[in-house]
Amino acid sequence: MSAPFVEIPEKEFVLPGTRTCAGCGLTLAYRYILKALGPDTIVTLPACCLTILHGIYPKTPIAINAVNNTFASTAASAAGLVAGLKALGKDKDFTVMAMAGDGGTFDMGIQALSGAAERQTDFIYVCYDNEAYMNTGVQRSSATPLGALTTTTPFLPKQQPKKDFLTIMEAHSPSYMATCCSAYPRDIYAKFRKAKEKKGTRFIHLAVPCPPGWGFPTSQTVRVGRLAVETGMVVLFEIDEGEFKLTGKSLTMARSGRKKPVVEYLKLQNRFAKMTDEQVEALQREVDSRWEKYLERSEP
Amino acid sequence: MSNVQIITGNQAAAIAAKLCRVQVIAAYPITPQSKIPELLSEYVEKGELKAEFIRVESEHSAMGVCLSASLVGARTFTATAANGLAYMHEQLHWAAGARVPVVMSVANRGLGAPWTILNDMQDTLSQRDTGWMQFYCFNNQEILDYVIMAYRVAEEVLLPAMVCFDGFRLSHTVMPVEVPSQELVDAFLPSRKLPYELTPDNPVNINPVVMGDRLPDPEGNICPDYMGFRLRMQKAHEEAMGVIREVGKAFGEVFGRSYELPYHAYQIDDADTVFVTMGSLSSEAMDAVDYMRKAGRKVGVLGLRVFRPFPSKETADILANFNKLVVVEKAISYGYETPLATEVKAALYTNGSNPLPEVYSVVVGLGGKDVNPQDLVGITEKLEKISPDRPSWWHEEELKQ
Ligand SMILES: Cc1ncc(C[n+]2csc(CCOP(=O)(O)OP(=O)(O)O)c2C)c(N)n1
Ligand code: SF4
Ligand SMILES: [Mg+2]
């Protein structure tokens, strides 16, 4: 699904005056997510950079309904919105989206998300992944990749690989699951349109480069995002009713056989400044072997 | 026509929730309240109650579901106890801050560590400052009645409410309970009206970040700061006391049992010494009073029904008349005394006049330790030796000394 010709609506739901950092990948992506889901969306969100994007009382630059919740309870809050709307006969009027960061998903939110997914709650869950606790000042999360410096891995870069959360979520058999990256807005738009039409638990992982957290210039957000995909660090796919497909740029790469070395992605970011050559090689091997598995799965 | 059923406290809570036509229920098992969600799920599965029942994976999520469902307008219910309640702690603050009228029944149980499944009131009393209203039930009838009243009060003042009752002593003990008809409950508790409507045309950001200073909205109106929202919560609690009394009175008019007073009193008219208690402990105290009155002692009981908002004036007005107040409680605020004793003293200091009664703080019945009427008689006999500046423990190890 490369979706180059989809018509993206003009209407904006992320209005001028956001408080997120210049070059924020999350903000770029959110614009297309809301265009895809439309005004009848209720988003529920925990403490994270998305809270900041939603503004400070009594103003908000976001033109859809939002319900804030505690850090661990995003999916539970969504389940409550879904149940409440259903009990009132209003479930057809709204799309319920839960959206949390990697910390609020991979770490603290996992219990509520696992519960809601197992109960096949009718909602879209989006984890936007900037690979650390950014809102509290770039501390390590279980989504932080091996070799990254954070404020809680300040001298010894993170020693453990990123948690394989996609496999965990796939094991919950969501009705629809997809990955996307803020550098590919049309792909985001198309996947969220698709997710909106489905029933049951839909899970979307969204990779969002973060200039201050990752250590690259604010002008490079799209470039870093593209390199994440072009090197295979992030793989774009969807699993629709159990059927796996590479999509967008990842599909083109699979067809052309061209994949860039991870070092091209790493060298743009200060967080990887302390990675040793051996660590880079180990990461390359890991990315290659994962890529091979995806290629195998995508074969018809 | 009266319909008296012989039921447990858990059954009374579940039947009451059903009579209130709750629309969303989310609950997690924990002894001694598990029967409540079991019964409610049965009502829902059999079609006797039209509600969404969410079998959540934790109490934190139970409250997460309830509070968000409540925000969109559903009447929501949950039940828990002890560690389940403690696990919800963050969500309790959030629910009160979000001003959602969730009602929760709590079958009071001691907290770990070490584990106990048995009764005391440490669980709910240590949630005192979360912003929830708290009602304490004397018997199973009060459980049923308070769940119904709690919704009416909560939906009027927009504060969540806990209906607390002693685990096992009430939750698992059968008693006659008059179960009102659905028609009467419907008339007393109409369906919930939301003071706002969520629509795509007027999107709102609910419970966002709020600053320490008041800020203008896009039209230039100055809006509350964080402390301003906290002030509104406190005012809602202050207003709630009046509403609780009115609703308690109206309940009496419809159902024949008035709860206008935030306490029930027994044999206090000529008393010089009064037991001050909460929950089912009042019945042991009443038995003790009957026994002691035969021996000519002028004793009575005051059982508090409402702990938050605290009926400071109401309790002080009556308690100031006695010489000695023996506050017997199944909870302790470690490092100080029993929580109700502190409240009673503060209420007397604020609203009473000299000479103030002596107030004794007595810890009893933690973790299910039996409290018999004889124990309460024993406590009064020991009063001369008890110093009011320290809580005394009615416990074998302390009694030896
Ligand atoms: C129970 C609890 N613990 C800790 C926090 C503090 N906290 C707020 S935001 C945040 C980090 C969020 O990280 P992530 O979910 O990755 O989102 P990001 O800020 O990176 O966008 C933390 C730890 C909290 N709000 N609640
Ligand atoms: S810290 Fe990163 S994710 Fe958060 S607002 Fe800034 S750029 Fe966006
Ligand atoms: Mg993050």
List the helices and strands and how they pair.
The complex is a heterodimer of chains A (300) and B (401).
Chain A lengths: L24 H13 L3 E5 L3 H5 L11 E4 L5 H14 L7 E7 L1 H5 L2 H9 L5 E6 L35 H6 L5 E6 L3 H13 L4 E6 L3 H4 L6 H10 L6 E4 L2 E4 L1 H9 L5 H5 L10 H22 L2
Parallel strand pairs in A: 1-2, 1-3, 3-4, 4-6, 5-6
Antiparallel strand pairs in A: 5-7, 7-8
Chain B lengths: L3 E4 L1 H11 L4 E3 L8 H11 L6 E3 L4 H13 L4 E5 L1 H6 L1 H9 L5 E6 L13 H4 L7 E4 L3 H18 L3 E6 L8 E4 L3 H7 L16 E2 L8 E2 L5 E2 L2 H30 L7 E4 L6 E6 L2 H14 L4 E6 L1 E3 L3 H8 L4 E6 L9 H13 L6 E6 L9 H9 L10 E2 L2 H4 L2
Parallel strand pairs in B: 2-3, 2-4, 4-5, 5-7, 6-7, 13-14, 13-16, 16-17, 17-18
Antiparallel strand pairs in B: 1-8, 6-15, 10-11, 12-14
Helix pairs in contact in B: 1-2, 1-7, 3-5, 7-9, 10-13, 11-12
Bound molecules: thiamine diphosphate, iron/sulfur cluster and magnesium ion.
Magnesium ion binds next to loops of chain A.
Word description of this protein:
The complex is a heterodimer of chains A (300) and B (401). Chain A is 38% helix and 14% strand. Chain A is of the alpha/beta class and 300 residues long. Chain A has one domain (25-298): Rossmann fold. An eight-stranded mixed sheet of chain A has the order 2-1-3-4-6-5-7-8, sandwiched between helices. In chain A, helix 1 runs parallel beside helix 7 (185-197). Chain B is 39% helix and 18% strand. In chain B, helix 7 links the parallel strand 6 (133-136) and strand 7 (161-166). The termini of chain B are far apart. The relative contact order of chain B is 0.11. The mean pLDDT of chain B is 97. At the A-B interface, strand 1, strand 2, helix 3 and helix 5 of A face helix 3, helix 5, strand 9 and strand 10 of B. Strand 2 (65-68) of chain A pairs parallel with strand 9 of chain B, so a sheet runs across the interface.
Small-molecule binders: thiamine diphosphate, iron/sulfur cluster, magnesium ion
CATH superfamily of chain A: Thiamin diphosphate (ThDP)-binding fold, Pyr/PP domains
Portion in helices of chain B = 25-40%
- How far apart are the first and last residues' alpha carbons of chain B, in Å? 56 Å
Strand content of chain B: 15-25%
Which pair has the most extensive contact? A-B, 47 and 47 residues
User: Shape of chain A, please?
Assistant: globular
Which strands sit side by side, in order, in the main sheet of chain A? 2-1-3-4-6-5-7-8
Helix content of chain A: 25-40%
- Tell me the total number of β-strands of chain A: 8
Count structural domains of chain B: 2
Corresponding CATH architecture of the largest domain in chain B: 3-Layer(aba) Sandwich
Number of domains of chain A: 1
Q: List the quaternary state of the chains.
A: heterodimer
Briefly note the structural class of the backbone of chain B. Answer: alpha/beta
How would you state the average pLDDT of chain B, rounded? 97
Strand order of the largest sheet of chain B: 3-2-4-5-7-6-15
Indicate the CATH class of the largest domain in chain B: Alpha Beta
In DSSP terms (H or I, runs of 4 or more residues), the helix count of chain B works out at 14
Number of helices in the DSSP assignment of chain A: 12
Pfam families (chain A): TPP_enzyme_C
GO biological process, one term (chain A): small molecule metabolic process
Keywords (chain A): Oxidoreductase, Pyruvate
GO molecular function (chain A): oxidoreductase activity; thiamine pyrophosphate binding
